[in-house]
Amino acid sequence: MMHGTTPSQQRISRKKIIYPVNDSLRAYLSAHSREIRLPVKYADLLHFEGATAVYDKRGKDSLWETAIYRHSEGEEIHDGLKQIYSILKTGGDSRVHKHLHIDRVDYCTFGNSNPFRIRIVNNFNDNYDYFYIKQADASRVYGLELEHILSPERINYFVNEATLIEEHIAGVPGDLFMTSYFDNPEFNKVRIAKEFVKFNERCFVRLLGDMRSYNYVLDITPDFEEVQFRIRAIDFDQQSYEGRRNLYLPQFFKENNPLVKLVQEKLSPETVEQYRKEERTLIERRSKSSRIRLQALLAIMCLDDISPVDKVHTLRTELADFYADPHFLTLTTMGQLVRYSLQIL
Q1: For the chain, what is the radius of gyration of the CA atoms?
Q2: 120 by DSSP, 3-state: which?
Q3: CA–CA separation, 212 and 238 (whole Å)
């Protein structure tokens, strides 16, 4: 049975350390076509003269600001951003540049990573899309790669030196879903509850932390008779960083309490356990189908320092107690904890 959170269970580090991408990880990224040359880098976008606040449709401050550049620099930056978008979408085919323009370059003032969000518009039909430019933190890169290998969905991203490019993951943000979509009578609440159980399990098995409601989206897809739901993480800053086991379980964040309550109301403990086992089986199958790639990634991750030692020691102790497996106590890095967590599936 799922339970809600208490304040003591929800202590996320206020400022996460940014870890550089080491040579071994960079070689892995190059081998899998993730490391490429980019015309615009994160540091280039920091040279803006001013910024204006971005408000959402309800008039609330979104905590994003639109960056304002000098005209000469802005043209060069916008051209480079269009090239990056073509790399993400068409493998670098420059012919798509002609009918695109950069509508906004937004800078996030909230959180650890201070990303840029690029809004790009098709001149033919006014359709728009987004992508993100961030600092290439090793934790985030490991999170993205594990998401690509182990989750139901593939994800598109590239790295160039200290710059990370991520595609936009479409969906309804979890916090917005719970305030504006949750009571939709056309939605089957059992399906929502089932997907939250599976998402909870995916995060825990691969140790992806801080899945508060604004760090994931719900992908809502009409099916033959009803609607299907998929919960997708959109923030990977807290991949294997925190020391508390509960911080890797979305069920323990108070922001997710409406979904936890839904699980308690709609699913029996036996059904919850069934869905947990189903998701673990699917993760096992995905890991086997990408065995060589996953092993190569985890071998690098096991030797990388991506969390303070005290957090590693706290987490290994809590995992050893949870699984009743003392082998966890012999592990010394977050990568080793992730690898062993996957091995005992």
Answers
A1: 21
A2: strand
A3: 11
Would you say the pTM of this structure is higher than 0.85?
A: yes
Which residues, other chains included, contact 223 with Cβ-Cβ below 8 Å and sequence gap of 6+? none
282 vs 251: CA distance, rounded Å: 20
Which segments in the chain show pLDDT lower than 70? 1-14, 111
d(CA 279, CA 145): 19
Tell me what pLDDT residue 99 has. Answer: 85
| Type of residue at 298 | L
Is residue 299 within 8 Å of residue 292, measured between CB atoms?
A: no
Strands 116-122 and 227-233: unpaired
Residue bearing tokens 């993760």: 283
Report the half-sphere exposure of 225 (CA within 13 A, side-chain side). 2
Q: How many other CB atoms are found less than 10 A from the CB of residue 89?
A: 16
Structure tokens at 300: 């690098």
Which DSSP string do the residues of 4-31 spell out, in sequence order?
---GGG----SSPPPPPPPHHHHHHHHH
pLDDT of residue 9: 46
Model confidence over 186-221: pLDDT tens digits?
A: 999 999 999 999 999 999 999 999 999 999 999 999
Domain boundaries, the chain: 23-167, 170-343
Distance CA 68, CA 153 (A): 35
Q: Which residues pair with 128 in a beta bridge?
A: 121
The pLDDT, as a whole number, for residue 6 is: 43
